[in-house]
Design a protein that fits this description.
- With 241 residues, this protein is an alpha/beta fold.
- The chain has a single domain, classed as Metallo-dependent phosphatases (Purple Acid Phosphatase, chain A, domain 2, 4-Layer Sandwich), CATH 3.60.21.10.
- The chain contains eight helices and eleven strands.
Amino acid sequence: MKGRRIFIGDLQGCREEFEALLTKVGFDPAGDTLHPVGDLVNRGPDSVGCVRLCRDLGARPVLGNHDVHMLRQWHDPSWRGRRTSLEALLGAPDGENLLAWLEQQPLVLGWEDVICLHAGIHPAWIDPVPLLTGRDLLDAEDEAVEFALRARHCDSTGAQPESDWPAPGDPFQPWDHFWRARTSETRTVVFGHWARRGLVELERTRGLDTGCVYGGELTAWIPEEDRIVSVAARQRWHAGS
């Protein structure tokens, strides 16, 4: 089928699984468009390969918290945290180009029927399609922006618990509970970021982080077919979850 949008869960450096998934869905670069849901980098074996393949295939991903963290490190050497993926990209012959490409990607993508972002939509957002790119996000401190990158549970005001595991009780719910409560909203939100929760197929909600980097699966959703496609991880690349 031509003209498909192929949304793919958190890659996190799992390039071989990414290639296997493209084969399984029958990706056609002449008609299909790839939309990874963020976290292209970190924890897996080949962050450079994932970013390069996305760029070369004309993918239009949204940024995840790992991507934004790495971009912040690139622009600010004092920024905290491990720098493994950044060092790998900077060591690649096209590394600067890859980083420049990545920082031009948006926080949110929107169509008439689908919204794509990495983590979650803040309950207070009226129209969650800000035209922000990685470059814009480097200095952003906006609550809705951080929510879009990191949220899992929240209450009706968007306040988040101190921890998401074990699952907090009332008044906290998975953020998408409040999205489905918007009865006038018809768009489906597709997201990642929540490997522990796994595949989510609920009304107007598709969660695609099935924990490939932790030994799970890499998962795609094709809205034109309303079809879920997955491939198994080659191995467990990272001990966390």
